[in-house]
Amino acid sequence: MYNRIVLAVDGSENSLRATKEAVKLVSLTPGCHIEVITVVDFSKSKSEILHTQGKEELELKRRKKLATVEEILKQGMVEYTLKFLHGEPGPTIIDYANKKKVEMVIIGCRGLNTLQEMVLGSVSHKVVKRVNCPVLIVK
Amino acid sequence: MIEKLKGNWFFNVKGDVLAGIVVALALIPEAIAFSIIAGVDPMVGLYASFCIAVIIAFVGGRPGMISAATGAMALLMVPLVKEHGLQYLLAATILTGIIQLLFGVFKIAKLMKFIPRPVMIGFVNSLAILIFLAQVPHIWGISVMTYVFVAVTLAIVYLVPLIFRAIPAPLIAILVLTAVAILSGIDLRTVGDLGIIKQELPSFFIPDVPLNFETLQIIFPYSIALAIVGLLESLLTASIVDDMTGTESDKNREARGQGVANMITGFFGGMAGCAMIGQSVINVKSGGRSRLSTLVAGGFLMFLILVLGDWVVQIPMPVLVGIMIMVSIGTFDWSSFAYLRKAPRTDAAVMLVTVIIVVATHDLSKGVIAGVILSAIFFVSKISNIKVLKRQDNDTIVFELEGQLFFASVDGFVDAFDFTATDSHIIIDFSNAHIWDDSAVGAIDKVVIKYRENHNKVTVRGLNASSKKMVDKLAIYNDANAKLSAH
Question: For labelling alongside A60, which of B46, B203, B252, B363 has CA 20 to 30 A away?
Answer without folding.
Answer: B252
